[in-house]
Write a structure and sequence with these properties.
It is built from 14 helices and 18 strands. It is of the alpha+beta class and 459 residues long. Helix 1 runs antiparallel to helix 14 and helix 12 runs antiparallel to helix 14. Bound molecules: ligand BES and zinc ion (ZN). The site of zinc ion has 5 residues, from loops. The site of ligand BES has 17 residues, from helix 4 and strand 14.
Length: 459
């Protein structure tokens, strides 16, 4: 193992430069005009994987391509097989004016590598690729077969991955899946994440007059769609931060004493957090700590709100429509479809008169939870400890990676979540970065993991 770790250390600077090349692709999956950039990015990644000695392929899908890279030419049935999942698509970088530098021109400042996708998720899965490269280049035998599955639609709901898993099930059958696409509280708190929240998205549109109207001529005689939408939304959460949609909490499993204790171990400094987030104070559901609220409780969030005139000055109209983009984070046992149906029913009931309401269901995925004490989890914890040089903790995370449920359903295996992003890495915000020490530790983790995980695989 030492030659592998030495190789990683020795080549670290070069690997950072390679990661910069990867980040330069504006692989924004939510914006159709970037479709070709996603194709180019997938091709670059495939060529890169081939270049480091993997057997790689780009698979076309009706959406963005999927890159598969294997450490083997043919699977040998007597060797354990693990899958590393990641995504090369990135979030929209807007609002651009808040970025300190252009999002697709990577910039290094101290130990931070800035760029859209740096931590979510290019840098995180790149660390695993480099670890495997180190095995291959130093002629060190990898004790298992590894397949990298890097997709391009994670940020928009993984539409085409599920059919891909079904179509390639035989080849992808494995002992477990490794994903580094979550976070850790600090480099002194490496973590095994054993739960993720689920999600369900809805788009609420209130339709009013057939066109924007003069508010002086018609205002007062017709319902204002923006006003109606605000009235609809305002009642969905009470002053104690509780969601008021009937049945919303019905299936939520209360937190056990063990879990509350684990969550309380996660370092948390209120003042630091409020300063970092730029808020006067924290807010959330009464009766729960901030850590519990952001990882283990369901929420209702407005992600975007649009209606009427947004330009300079004033324009006296009654807008024709108003729209809210909403997502709800869910916890284990809550079903996305059921929650969406509750929202639709409730909004219909409380909709003000004089408008037409449209509630469109969007993407969704259930929460995920896995045993933090299984042999696999313990093996992962040993690797974390060796790579980071300190005791790892157990985490529940508030974000969502819906595909891990499909891994369980289609391939029948658990996912080990080993995040490398730090709290100030700004995923989905302006000035996203990846910490280069996290990259370095992540590469070591990627190397140390395979003997540990292999030792747990039953043959
Ligand atoms: N890397 C995140 C997921 C994440 C972030 C999990 C932080 C835990 C902690 C991923 O890229 C992501 O953003 N997922 C989306 C999923 C959605 C589009 C279905 C999310 O959580 O909003
Ligand atoms: Zn993301």
């Amino acid at each position: 193992m030492q030659p592998v770790l030495d190789f990683l250390k020795k080549n670290e600077e070069w690997f950072v430069q390679e990661l910069c090349d990867y980040i330069r692709y504006p692989s924004i999956s939510a914006q159709p005009e970037h479709k070709e950039d996603l194709v180019q990015c997938a091709r670059w990644l495939c060529a890169h994987c081939e270049g480091i000695g993997l057997n790689a392929e780009v698979f076309e899908t009706p959406g963005n391509p999927i890159v598969i890279a294997r450490t083997y030419l043919e699977r040998s049935k007597d060797r354990p097989h693990f899958l590393v999942y990641g995504h090369y698509d990135v979030q929209q970088p807007e609002p651009l004016e808040l970025g300190k530098s252009p999002p697709f021109e990577p910039r290094i400042e101290g130990r931070s590598l800035f760029g859209r996708g740096a931590c979510d998720n290019k840098g995180q899965h790149f660390a695993h690729l480099k670890a495997v490269e180190a095995y291959l280049k130093t002629g060190t035998e990898i004790p298992c077969d590894i397949t990298f599955l890097i997709e391009g639609e994670e940020e928009v709901g993984c539409t085409n991955l599920q059919p891909f898993l079904q179509a390639h099930r035989e080849e992808l059958l494995c002992d477990a899946i490794v994903v580094s696409d979550t976070g850790i509280p600090s480099l002194r708190h490496p973590a095994l994440t054993y739960a993720l929240r689920g999600i369900t998205a809805v788009e609420i549109t209130v339709h009013g007059p057939s066109r924007d109207l003069h508010s002086g001529i018609y205002g007062g005689a017709v319902q204002n769609p923006a006003m109606a939408l605000c009235q609809l939304l305002v009642g969905l959460r009470d002053k104690n931060g509780k969601v008021t949609i009937p049945g919303f909490y019905k299936d939520v499993v209360p937190l056990s004493a063990f879990e509350k204790k684990q969550l309380a171990r996660i370092p948390f400094k209120e003042k630091e957090l409020t300063e970092f987030l730029g808020v006067p104070k924290l807010f959330g559901e009464r009766g729960f700590t901030a850590t519990e609220r952001r990882s283990a409780r369901p929420t209702f969030e407005i992600n975007g709100l649009t209606s009427g005139y947004q330009g300079d000055g004033s324009k006296t109209i009654v807008p024709a429509w108003a729209r809210a983009k909403v997502t709800m984070r869910l916890v284990p046992n809550q079903k996305p479809e059921k929650i969406t149906a509750l929202v639709q029913k409730h909004l219909k009931k409380i909709c003000p008169p004089g408008v037409r309401l449209e509630v469109a269901a969007g993407h969704g995925g259930e929460a995920y939870m896995v045993s933090p004490t299984s042999p696999l989890a313990k093996a992962a914890l040993r690797s974390l400890k060796a790579a980071f040089g300190c005791e790892p903790i157990l985490l529940r995370e508030g974000g969502s990676i819906p595909i891990v449920n499909d891994f369980k359903r289609i391939l029948g295996v658990d996912t080990i979540l080993l995040g490398l992003a730090l709290p100030d890495d700004n995923p989905h915000s302006p000035n996203e970065k990846f910490d280069l020490d996290a990259f370095s530790k992540g590469m070591a983790l990627g190397a140390l993991l395979w003997p540990e995980l292999t030792s747990t695989a039953r043959r």
